[in-house]
Amino acid sequence: MKVPRFGSPTIRLALSYLAIIMTLSLGFSILFYSTSSGSLHVEKQNSSGAILPTGPQGSFSMRTDSGPTAIPSSGSGIDAQLQQRLNAVRSDLLHRLIALNLGALLLGFFLSYYLAQRTLRPIEAAMEAQARFSSDASHELRTPLTALRTRSEVALRKPDLTLDEAKAVIASSIEQAIKLQDLSSGLLRLSRDNGKNLKRQSIWLDEIAGEALNRIREIAQANHIDLQLTVPHVSILGDVESLTQVITILLDNAVKYSKPGGVIRLTGGSEGKRGFLKVHDKGVGISPADVPHIFERFYRADQSRAHKVKDGHGLGLAIAKQLTEQSGSTISVESTLGKGSIFTIKLPLARL
Ligand code: ADP
Fold first, then answer.
1. Which of 25, 72, 133, 323 has the greatest number of CB atoms lying within 10 Å of its CB?
2. Residue 264: CB within 6 Å of ligand 1?
3. What confidence tens digit (pLDDT) does each residue in 274-322 have?
């Protein structure tokens, strides 16, 4: 177990909690002590008042229902005895309250520490995720920026740079700039989209699937990939633009990770209270070790590099996951390495 430093946020929060617990405990103890000793004092006065001197000096009588009864004792003696008892009760009460507060201090410390740890755990996790995100993002930005700078500097230093060489450098710079643009828009989407602007409404599954298919038709044709759509006319609940974007990301990946001449199928339907949409490809597939990570930001499986897929920063599926969850849907994958993948989106059905 990690022992926290003195002055660490956990200890500081625990001490604040402890201060609250002890203020309450001491406050109640003081209040209890003063009211209890006040009522003891009143009781003692009542008891003393009930013993009145009536007879000759040295004898007392106590008022009872059946009349005065003589008590053969001196008044100041009884008073002193009562005072003694009162002092003993008070000191006993004080000791018990001190012991109680020491117990509260000890127990309160452990309780405060536990509560502080519980309070800070999600905050620390969020801060760690934020730091990891920033460091991954700057790492991803550095590679195209370094390439851009190095090629431009080398070209600039060359005294006999030909026009063709200059054009090649400019073309490569444009390519890197496009990558940077893609990356920055992906990063912006991930950090800005919190789902507040989503409009959840009933939409037709086949319509959004058709729209997504249209968006990637050109790239698919360029890669000689056949697209097949068999999605029924089912009404689901979700945000039109987000879900269309999610399907587009999945189709775009299916094209990227398929060999030329392959087939991509888009199927759908409903099961119980949920609708579903599947993107099937017969591409490179994903290894079982990579499957649990592909929805993480910046994660790229090895075979995507081996397949020489250069475009991409490992953000597409992270964005797809964020958008599906914000729309009240889920996304999952089944894949066999070398055989292909099936990405499934499960969506709530709309009640018509
Ligand atoms: P990228 O920009 O690398 O495509 P994604 O977040 O979209 O980023 O995907 C993460 C990783 O998941 C990819 O690098 C790739 O390894 C794997 N992947 C995603 N879709 C597929 C697919 N249809 N077939 C095989 N691998 C895929």
1. 323
2. no
3. 999 999 999 999 999 999 999 998 898 876 555 555 577 889 999 999 9
